[in-house]
C-alpha cells in the first residue's frame, strides 16, 4: 500500500509536465487505477528520456537549415499570395526553417501499380544517387520492379541509400529475404528507429518514422502516402478481408527537392552517422521555373512546437466556404476537433473522407468515437467502401476559390501523427495541383457513402462502449 500511494503521489506531479491535459489525464488514469502496470508502461512509452539524442540532432539540424536559408525570402518574390497565406508560410518557416519555393509537380500518381512502376523507372535514370525513406518496405511481386531497379543502379555505380522503419517493416512476410537481397545488391540500408537493446539501440517502442520519400539525383522527388509494399499489405488478415490500399504520390522537380533531401540527410545521419553532401538543383544544371509555390513541412518528436498540428489548424481556420479533409485515421487532438466544428458553426461546408472500416481495431473505434460530435456540428462524413482502405492524406481549404490552399503528404490527422510520428507534408500555396486534389476528393466522394446522424444514433450500446474505451487509449502519448 505504501508503494502504491507513493507511485500515485509522485506521478501526479511528474506526468503533466510539458504534456497536453488530455494526454496527462489518460496516463494518470492508467497509473492511478493500475499503478504497478501503469508506471512501467509510462516509463517505456510516455517518457522522453530515450529520445534525447534524436532531439539534439534535430535541433542542431534545424539551426543549420535556418542558417543556410537566412538570405532566402519566405516565398518567391513574384508569388501572388494573400496576406493570410503569407502568414501561414511564415508560420511554417518559423517552426521548421524551410521557405516556400517555386516547384513543378510533374504528376499526381493515384494508381498503385503505376506509382511503383514510376519509382522503378526514375531509379533507372539515376546517375549519382538514389535516396529512399519509406515507413513500410517489403520485397514482393508488386515491389520487385523497384528493388530490381535499385540493384541495377548500384551495379552501374549509383549510391542507393534506403531507410525503412524497423517496426513498420519487420512484421511483413519475407523480411529476412528482403535484407539478403539488399545486402547482395550492395544497397546501403539502415533501420529507422531500431529497437535493438542488445546492440545498445533502444528508444520508445511506440515511435515511428512514417515518412515516405524517394529522391533521384537531387533532381526529382516523390512523396505522398504510398509505402513500398504490395497493395494488400501481405498479411493474412488483410488477405482474408480482401483489403486493398488507396494511395496518392506526387512527383516533384525544383528547389523543393533540395528541401526534401535535406530532411532525408538528417534522418540518414541520425541512423547511420554519415553526413551527406547535398547537390542543389542549380549545381546539377536543373533550371525549371515552377508552376507551384510549395513548402516542405516536416514534423516529429524532434520538433517541440508541433508544426504539423499548427499547420492543419491554421488551414482549417483559413477556410471560408468549404473544407475537405481526407485521412485514413482521423483521431483529432482537442484543438483540431474544435477548429473543425468551429468551421461548421461559421457556415463552412466540411467534408470528411474516411474509410468505412479502418484496418486497425483500436484506431477504428477511437476514430468513430468522434463521429457523433462531428455529425452534430454539421460535418459531412463520407465513408470509402470496405474492404478498400482509403490511405491518401490531404486537406483542402476553399477549393475552386482564389484563396485555395492545401496540405498533402504522409501525415494522418490523428494524435500519433501530430506528436509521435516523424512525418513529411507539403503545404501548397498556389498552382494547378490544388485543382487536381479537388478532383481527387470528388472522385473519392463519388464512390463513398455519406454517414448520417440518424443512422449513427442507432448504433448498439456495446459499440459506444468500445469506442469510448479506445478513445482513452488514443491519448496515451
From TrEMBL:
Cross-referenced PANTHER family: CARDIOLIPIN SYNTHASE, PHOSPHOLIPASE D
Localization: Cell membrane
SUPFAM superfamilies referenced in this protein's UniProt entry, alphabetically: Phospholipase D/nuclease
GO terms for MF: cardiolipin synthase activity
Lineage: superkingdom: Bacteria
Domain PLD phosphodiesterase per the UniProt entry, residue ranges: 205-232, 386-417
EC class of the enzyme, as a word: transferase
PROSITE patterns per the UniProt record, alphabetical: PLD (PS50035)
Topology with respect to the bilayer: Multi-pass membrane protein
GO biological process per UniProt: cardiolipin biosynthetic process
Claim: Transferase is one of the keywords in the record: yes
Keyword rRNA processing on entry: no
Keyword annotations from UniProtKB, A to Z: Cell membrane, Lipid biosynthesis, Lipid metabolism, Membrane, Phospholipid biosynthesis, Phospholipid metabolism, Repeat, Transferase, Transmembrane, Transmembrane helix
Protein name: Cardiolipin synthase
InterPro entries the record matches: Cardiolipin_synthase (IPR022924), CLS_N (IPR027379), PLD-like_dom (IPR025202), PLipase_D/transphosphatidylase (IPR001736)
A cellular component term, taken from the record's GO annotations: plasma membrane
